[in-house]
Structures are given as C-alpha cells and as structure tokens.
## 1
Amino acid sequence: MRIDRADSEAELLGPPISNREIVKVVAGDFEVRLAQTAEEIDAAQRLRYRIFYEEMSAHPTPEMAVQRRDFDAYDEVCDHLLVLDRRRGDGPEGIVGTYRMIRRPAAAKMGRFYSSAEYDVQKMIDYPGEVLEVGRSCIAKDARNTATMQMLWRGIALYAYHYNIQVMFGCASFPGTDPQQHAQAMSYLYHHHLAPPEIRVRAVESRFVNMEMLPRDGYDQRKAMARLPPLIKGYLRLGGYVGDGAVIDRQFNTTDVFIIVKTELVTEKYMRHYERGAIDKD
C-alpha cells in the first residue's frame, strides 16, 4: 500500500491556524469550527477519553489512563472538528462534540490511513478525487441531541466543500465484541448497503468477520434497521455504503464496519442550508 508524500511540511499539516476559519458556523448557542489551540485539542481528547474509555469501557494505555486523554500520533497531523456550546464557554470548556479529519497529506505524514489497520483501503488511496478519513466521532452525554449532530455535519460539509472532498470514509462501530449480537443489523447492511465493487473496501483477512450472518429472508428489515447505531443510520441517510467484512476492535470494545460516503449529498444538503441562512441574515 502506497500513499504519495506531500511536497512540503506546510501541505502535510494543513492550513495555518489563521486560516482555520474555513469551518465556522454559529447557530444560536452552538458553534462549529476547527480546533485553534493545543488546549482545545487536549479538551477534545479528554472528551474522547470520557466517552470511549469511561462510558464505553475501551482499554486505555497506561499513559492515556494517567492523563485521562485519548490520543495517538494522528492527532498531531489531522484537523480536529469541534462543536462548542457557548453557554459553557467559548474555548476548551465549551467543547461538546468532536470529529477527527485526516486528509491525504496527513495520511502521507503517517505512512497510512488510520483505518488501514483493519481494512485494505487501497481503493480509497487510488480514488481519483480528494478523499477524507473521519473518525473519533463523539458527543458529550448531556449534549447528544439533533442540534449537536447537525452542527457536526455542517462542519463536515464546509470542510469537504473547502477541500473539494469527493469521498469520505472511516470505521463506525457497534458496541461490544460479539458480532452475533448484531447479526440482524449486519446482515441488513450487507444485503442492502454493500458498496459497489469499484469502491468496496474489504477487511484485512486476519481480522475479517462475515457480515452476512443471516439469509436475506431470515430477519425483519424494520427490526434490523432499528438496531443500527445512530451514527451508522446517519451515514446511510446520506447515501452511505459499507465495506465487506466487520472487524472486532478489542481495545475499543467494539465491532467495526467500514463506511464510505460520497460527499455530494452531504455538501449539497448542508451548504444549501448554510447559504440560505446567510441570505436570510442579509
């Protein structure tokens, strides 16, 4: 697997801090933008720790446990999308949601995309347009509502629009490490949302779990859809696909599926809404 190296350190690290207002939307008490300081990145990592390790029982490294932050080397080269509830504060104290954004230059810095540990992502690397890997999505427990999620999506739409992203991808999770508990939902995804062959990413053979656990007529589709995690439902509503095969992630105590979303619907839906709002304000 090969990722072309970027031409300069500036390209690898993305826009300078002064240009990070490419994503900035304020709606009522909420704001979505990219992290601007090390303190804000630390706060996003602390939020991730609370959600993944304390709430979802993932297994932190000793260093993470001491610092009570979720972090790895990708945090140094990616962009961190934040949602802030400005009633709580305009800086780190206001962060209630986050997403991690990894473009080709950041992946080149690391030598691979994050999800390549679980999936053969060569079809994403070879994709002719710009691609974006998203991950580490989480929202504070007391802020899990439609408003917060919509702000995250508006931020993603603006980011994708600015960088002309054609496809975004990443892993989304079912809770727990027993895929059989999710047999109906995974079989439904396989039968109805499997990506077309030209962009169908497959789990690495050593970790491959067959998602087709039940025959097409062996489950109730409505019940299967109801058992999908909210984030996966959101991706599907935007025309998302899944890759072939699930993967058990024992560190995070999850069973992962690969999600692929062509960003046309994302940018069209949210940019239209954003532009309409701008016109109304004038």
Note: Confidence is low (pLDDT under 50) at residues 4-18, 274-282.
## 2
Amino acid sequence: MKKSNWAVFAILVVISAFLLWLWYYLGFNRVDNPFDLVLSICWWIGVGVLCWLIYRSEKKRQEQIRTIYVAPNALFNSERGIVKFDDPEQRVPLMEDILANLKYDFHKEDMPDQDDMQFDYVVRTEDFKQDDSQRQEDATADQTKTPASMAPVSPVQTASVTGPDDIAIPEEQDDPTWKGSVVRIDHENGNEEKDFDGLQQLVAVLA
C-alpha cells in the first residue's frame, strides 16, 4: 500500500468521527428514534467498503506493474522498461531483481512495438516477497557498487548479462514467496496459461 492510500484511510476515519460527533452535538440523536443508529451503521459500512475498494484497486495496480513480458533475449516491465540479457538462464534471476526493486510509482514505460520485440511469455506475479537474508544481501550489494554502475539509467534500460557472476541465486537459499501465472504466447494454437508457486516452478514453466 502506498502512503497516499493510507492517508485517504486516515482522512475517512477522521471525517467519520467528526460527523458522528457533530450529529450528537447538534442534538439529532433521539432515544426513541433509531434513525441515528441505523445511519451510523450504514455510514461505517460505507467507509469500510470504500477502504476495501481502495485496497483492492491498489493491489490490482501493483499486480499489473509486476507483470513481465519475456522475449528470447530481453524482458519488459512497465516500470523498469526493457532489460536485455545474453544467457537465457538469467531470465528468472533478472525477473526476481526487477520485482525486488519496483517502486510502484505512476511512471510507465511505453510498450515496445511488436515488430521490434516478439514476446514468448507473459509472467503475471500475484505475490512476491523476498526473505530477509536475500534483502540483506541485495542491500549489501547496492552499497558496494562502483560509481559507474550507479550512474543514471535511461528510460529504456539495457542490462547485459554475460555470466552467472553478475546475477546469481544462492543454491542453498530458500525460495522467496513468488506465485502467479505464466502465459505462453502462441498465435497459431492459442495461448496457454500455467500457474506457478515458487521460483523452481517458474523456472520449470519457462523451460
């Protein structure tokens, strides 16, 4: 959840409390008339439904941002842009790196033209969460980057991967929470969608 959504929730609660106080202060409540109780219940139900709709909308927006399009030699994410690679085995580690560093802001890169990039898969991530050890390793790696690697990146990013030393997954490390679905694009026979739950299942589906 973004801070703006929490601010909306807080404003709704404050306004609701103020209106409830004003209702009693102006003497609209009557002991022999249950209208004020019914109105209060309906109001709080409405506030709860509105908060739930905001939460669902934000969750859906974040799921859309996590969507990654997979081409034979590149990935595309609406926030990150185009990320190229040389070794197909680095697709999943690159996707993990993209998801771990998303800001979920409202910046959106343009989808590349179909003539320029043909996508084979669409990876839709319902839930993604790294474990604490992986986040600590990523933070340590960011602190040890050279100044050249920390230079500003153009809107269309190109990350060339030449070997496992660039981005690697520790063999003994537990898988992060990562589940969703993979759509295999087939213009002739129709698309095929498979669910995955965990990094290893994702690797198997993309293989």
Note: Residues 35-65 form the longest helix (31 residues).
## 3
Amino acid sequence: MRLRMNRAIAGYILAGIAMLVMILYLRFPGETVTDYVKAMAAVRYPRMLLSIDTVQPAIPPGVALENVTAGFRGHPEATLHADRLSVRPGWLSLLRGRLAFLLTAEGYGGEVRGRIDFANIFSLQGPLSAEANFREIRIEKCAWLRDALSRQITGTLKGSASFSGAAEALNNGTGNLDFTLTNGTYPLLESFFGFDRLDFNKVDAKISFRNGALKITGLTLNGEKLRCSLKGNILLADDFRESQIDMNGSIELPMQGNKRVTLAISGTLGNPKTRFM
C-alpha cells in the first residue's frame, strides 16, 4: 500500500514538473529575451552587429538561439554564424559558489562545445576561464576567416582551445590553441617553385596567446608535393588582417629529391611577404 502511494506521489510530482516546463515553454518571452541579448551585446561590444532569429527555452534548463550571426562595423560581410547556439548554467559549479555557463554551437557543418567559468558568482566581470573543443568545421564556409586572411582556405578543422584572463581586459589574458586541419587548400598570393596554392593532407598547429600576441610553437603542413614547418610570432591588431607576422621555417619538396629550402615570413596576415634563403 505504501509503495503504491509513493508511486502515486512521484507520478504527481513528475506530472507537475512536466506541466511547469510546458507552461514555461509556451509562455517563454522569446522576443523580449532576443531584444535583451541584442541590447547587452551592443553595450559590451559596440562594434559588433548581432542578428538572432529566435530564442527559445531548452532542456536541460537553458536557452537555445537559432541562426545567430555576428558581423562587425566596417566589415559587415565578415560574419561568424551558428545555426544553433545553446547556453545553460553549470549547476554543479553554482552549488560550489561559482558562476559557469555551458555552450554548444552548431554551424559550418560541425560543432563546438565549451564552457566559461567566472570567479564572481554575481557578476560577468573579473577573472574568468574558458575552454572549448571543436570538430568537423568546414572553414571555407566561414566568411570572417575568408575576410581576415584575404583568401579562401579550405579544409576540415578540429581541435581545442583554452583561455584565462579578466572580462574587462581580455588582451592581457593567456591561452592555448591546438588544431588539426585536413584535406584542404591554401591559396598563395604569389607563386613560388611553380605553386599557386598549397594542397595539403594535414596541417597541425600548436599556438599560445599572451599579452596580445600569438606564439606559434609548431606548425606543420604535409602534402603530396610539399612539406612545410614554421615557428614564430604574430602580433595581433584590432583589424585581424593587419596583424604583424614574424615567422621562419623550412620547405621540403619530395618530388624534387626532398630539396629543402629555408624561408622567413613577414608583413601582415592579409598581405604576407615570403623571403627564401
């Protein structure tokens, strides 16, 4: 008898929760939340142009944003896009007195999963840490990357990233990026050794970020006709295309008896200059 009563009580509780979720879903103020998110983004990032189709509640508890596109004043065509972006709080972190958000983004044929942890449970300011894993990203679909590098690079991207810093001074933070890019092409602005583009099977990179600069500790490109290895630094600029390059490395040509040539790359990401030695 008691077991039957406990089951009935549990059933009523579950039914109540289901009804509450349904009511919240049906009565969710999607337009109001969408306008609020856009207004907050405009205040925090005045150079960004943000477009969101809809905002809906999600399960587990959180929100799901559909067709999110971010552009930038002066380069409105250089956009970042997510077909769907889900954001939900990290409940275990909240129980430990920390504010955290779990994010999942779908777009460009792939997926990004990450989280952001804030030191202050009542504020999005102050110290924070973030990490993300991404896979199956078709980079030729990304308009921002095409504009930033002034060329159409192709390939499938996977990797991971981490960052630590303060929300009000992101340029002073530190981070790491490891990625692999497979089966793609890197167009050249000017040909060398008869190549107008670099076709590759695989590109591996290990990059660290500190004080507004990228340190490339290892970048290797492997293809049937060419192998390349580079190291160096990139000093980031507000306009990503104007970031200054200081890199050096070597090229091997398997089809020419493994001929080896050293090189140095300077200039900017949008207009690099290569010198052979």
Note: The chain has four helices and 14 strands.
## 4
Amino acid sequence: MTVSIRQLHPHFVGEVEGIDLRQPLATADVDAIDEGMDRYAVLIFHDQNITDEQQLAFTRNFGEIEHAVGNSITASQGRRLGTEMADLSNLAQRDQIFQRDDRRRLFDLANRLWHSDSSFRVVPAKYSLLSARAVPAHGGNTEFADMRAAYDALDDRTRAEVADLVCEHSLMYSRGLLGFTEFTEEERKTFTPVRQRLVRTHPVTGRKSLFLASHAGGIVDWPMSEARSYLRDLSEHATQPEFVHVHQWRLHDLVIWDNRQTMHRVRRFDDVNEVRDMRRTTLIGDGPTAEQTPG
C-alpha cells in the first residue's frame, strides 16, 4: 500500500495512511514522509503500536537523534527511558504518577506553554516524533501553530522589523513564566541562554517562519521588558485560531512535527490521577541559527 497524506487544516497538518512503522521503510516511503513534512509541517500516524526500539529505528530514517540530556532536571539515575528518548510522561522511575508538589512535575508544567523543542540549544531541533503509549480519558491534547502562515500574515512594517532580530532562549525563561525560579548552580549553567534568529528560512522550501517559543526571554540589544512585551505580541499573533490545529490523541498515535516551522503546547489534564505516557524522539537540526556570545 502506498503512502497517502490527507490535509486536515487549511494551512498545514497531514494525516498519513498506508504505512506500518513497525516495519523497515522503503526509500520511497522515507522520501514521501520527508516531502510531506516540508509541505504540512505536522504529520499524524494512527494505530502505530510500536516499541521504543521501533520508534528509534523509524526516527533514524530522517537524521541524527538528539540525546535527551540537558532538557530537564531529572537526574540520570532517575530516568525511566534511555537518553535517545525524551520522557514526556507524568511518571517517575517506577511508573508511579508524580505527586502534585514533585519538583519534576512543576518543571514540566511549562510544556503547557507554546514552545519549539530544543530552541534552548545552540543547535535547535529539526523534527520531533511523539508516540502515545497511554492517554488520559480527558484533556492532554496537543495544539500546533503554523509559524509560516503566521509570518505570511504579518504586515510589511512588522516583517521588516523582525527580519534581523536575534532572541535569547533558555529553559529558565519558560519555567520562570510559571513561577519556577529555584535552580541549582549546575542547572543554571546547563540552561545558559543561547541565541536564535527570530525569522528562519526553510532549507528546502525557502519559506520563512517565525521562530518563537516561551523559552525566548529576550531580544539582543533590547531592554528586557520591551523585548518580552514584543515577543508576547508576536506569540499572540502566531497562535490565533486560524493558525492552530488541535490534535486529540488516540492510543498508539505517532505525530511528527517540524520545530523549524511550528510551535506546540500540551493542554491540561488530570495529571495527578491519570497517566499520560508520551515518548519523544528528536532529530538534531541543521545548525546554529545565530552567532553565539563568545566565552
């Protein structure tokens, strides 16, 4: 059966049929998915009951895997999963649900803010691939925003203004928005801000997009308060309903999104009583988007 993709949103998002992610992919299938990502930026695969090993094998078809180190406050000895997989569940090491006041849970609540994965790294992520191993009865949807369409909708004056701006991204910025401000010295060092261009150009299609995230807490050479106000305005523009698709998870869905072209956020669910076990593999991006501060 050949791969087919049906568009779900006027601007982006495709639903894929004709593929079994448990099996090795033919070159034509890999090419079809890559081309679909360039066009739709988000692809949804239903009924993919895969193992961690199968998810990793599928991911490697599209590039080099980013290790999930430096993106959380979970100590290495407390990890449920290997470093090639980011644990986006509400579960501790022995599959017990986090207590409400668990520091790891409070840190992860910022995933409910709009963001782009790994924008806080010098080399931000390319694709993220998220597999649903357990879903709550209510809530826990993921929303995606098309940052290409948001850029296209800017007025000419704003488009000229954002063209050369460079932002500073850090996990401390996004967590600080929710009042999580107590970091160890080691964590502060790990989460040192990095610079990213505010406007990116896709290497294949040439389309421009806004590169926003709750991790962005400053604009180079701007006063902090002015920068945050400006970035908030841009984020509100980019996440208008016309640019947003809501994915309601089914068990064994796998969703791929392009972090260079989208933002996303998870919505609230009863995470102190219901399990949401989501496992993400992430691909390393094309390279730095802006020159970093020396030192």
Note: The radius of gyration is 18 Å.
